[in-house]
Amino acid sequence: MHTAETDLAVFLPRLEALTRKAGDIAMNYFRPGERTIADVSYKGGGSPVTEADLAVDRFLYEEIARLVPEAGWLSEETADNPDRLSRETLIVVDPIDGTLAFARGDDRWAVAIALIERGRPVAGVVHAPALNETYVGALGRGAFLNGEPIRVSRREKMEGAQIVAPRGLHAYFEKSPYGFDLAPRTPSLALRIADVATGRHDLAIAAAESRDWDIAAADVILTEAGGVLSELEGAPLVYNRPRLARDMLVAAPRALFPASLALAREVSKGAK
Fold it and tell me: Which of 34-48, 107-121, 147-161 shows the lowest per-residue confidence on average (mean pLDDT)?
């Protein structure tokens, strides 16, 4: 796999089709407004994992191996294999981003898949079947929601911006002289970033400790929609590292990114 536009033009529809099939598997276990029919267990840190997460993970592991046989594999629900670090190409998967929401019957969850080449995402799909929303993006080919092009907010100043922020830090943003409009926090981080890509929200700040599978697919979608996703140092995110945990994240249009980054740095200092 190479990043030539012709390759991505062929690859992206195939990736989207697989992601949609994965979403169909998850929907077999989902009950809107009700508890899932899937068995639910808990990981060491207390976060839930359902029978649906594991079923989607198995399906994608087998299908991706056929689609991109040379790629390494990184998924929230598969034991990490350090062999991926030696690969130039990597597939990053979150079988269900927003598992707790999924388990409770909240429709704000998604299947997220990204293709990483030489440390950067070059194609991504974030599919939210219960919302009937599918975001796709690829390097140099733009970003789309349900087939329609998307762009970040055209806002050029922070004053009055609509922001999504960690619940525990709302007080910092409420006191800000910018007069932010604090938007509800979507359980799926991939969907929060996608909301910035569509311009539904002007910017988003996410607390530390997210993982690469939460953000990789949404990263390329946001970038292609005219935005930036970074940690507090402000550089483009590098993937396929030994360490998967992330610092505080900022997602914003390019025009708002410097001010958004400065704000996140200030908030991060105050939160320590």
Answer: 34-48
